[in-house]
Amino acid sequence: MPVYNKLVRDLIPQVIENSGSRFSTRILDKSEHLTEVKNKFYEEMKEFEATDNRKDALEELADILELIHAALPIFEATYEELEQIRIAKKEKRGGFNDGVYLIEVEDA
């Protein structure tokens, strides 16, 4: 039996059960959950980096967004709060839409 030891989507046990396979799971405590969300985020970022087409890129971005939604309750935060912070940072420093690539800065 393959051993995964990783965070999976909440309905994966049902998918496995419906396929007739056996499995074992456990519910993570808050600190373990955060650690595994971070690990999964890194995994999904690597998968996003490897994409070369629109469909796969959007699938990986959706996974990343789902992980953001999973992390928020761990910090007792809402998506609206996160969005307010994002907007405030964008208003102060801009976004990443223009593709500005900083090469170097000479000290004044």
TrEMBL record:
The UniProt entry, under InterPro entries, shows: MSMEG_1276-like_NTP-PPase_dom
**Which protein is depicted?**
Nucleoside triphosphate pyrophosphohydrolase
Which organism does this record belong to?
A: Psychrobacillus faecigallinarum
